[in-house]
C-alpha cells in the first residue's frame, strides 16, 4: 500500500503507473472508516469507462451469445455483475418465459448504476446489504444484513460478497432453486480490497491472489448452485500472443479442474480494444512492455457433469 506522504502528481506507490491522486491517494486520505466506501465509488466510476467501451464493441453481447448456444438457459446468476452491461446482454440473449437473471456484486455503487441502467424496480433490488466496519486492527470487516431477502421480478440485483458468509442469501438461494448458468465476467478488485479482513485471512499479497481466491470460491459455489449439466462461464482479460496464452490457459484450466465435477467445453478468445482514458482499468504492466500486443478476453466454458447435492468439494487449485 502506498504511503500517505506522496504528492498528488507523484506516481502511486502501488506501481500501477497512475498518479497518486488518481489511484490510492483518495483512499489513504479518506475520513476514518470511509476508505472502503471511497474505493468502491472510485471503482464504479472508473470501470464505467471500460464497461461502456466494451459494450460499444459488442463484447458483452458476444459472451452472452456464446453462453446461450452452450446451454438451454433460462436462469442465470452473474457474479460481480458490475454496472449491468453484462446483465443487459444476458437479458437480450435469454428468452423471456421462465427467465430469472440475478446479478450480485459486493460494490453497492456498481449495483446502483446497474439498477439505473436496467431500470430494475425496487422490488427486485437489495443494493446495500453489506456495511464495511473498520476494526482496531485497521482492517475492515463486512457486516452483512440478516433480514430475509424478499425479491420479485425476473431481473434481480443483490449486494453480496461471495467471500463473506451470508446466511440470508444462502437461504434465499435454497428457496429459489438451482441455476442453468453461473457467470463471472471481468472480475475486478477495488483499490482498498487489501484493507479488508477477507484479504488478511487469505494472506493475499496482490490483486492476482484475490482474483484466484474468488474464482476458486465461484467454483465451489457453482457445485452447490448449478443444475446437472449447467454451465459455468469465466471471462478474463489478457494481453500478449493470443494463441500462446489461450493454449497455456487451457492447460492450466484442465489441471485446475482435478477434483471438481466439471468438464471443459471450450476456451475461446475475443480480441477487443481498451479505452484510452487515463481513468480506465486497462490490461497493462509497469514491468513488461505490452505495446503492440493484442488485448483479448478469454471465455472459459465448463459444464457440470455430476448430480448436484449439498456437498462442497474442498479440493482444487483455483483457476
Automatic annotation (TrEMBL):
CDD domains: AdoMet_MTases (cd02440)
InterPro entries in alphabetical order: SAM-dependent_MTases_sf, SEC_C_motif
SUPFAM superfamilies to which the protein is assigned, alphabetical: S-adenosyl-L-methionine-dependent methyltransferases, Sec-C motif
UniProt protein name: SEC-C motif-containing protein
Organism of this sequence: Mesorhizobium muleiense
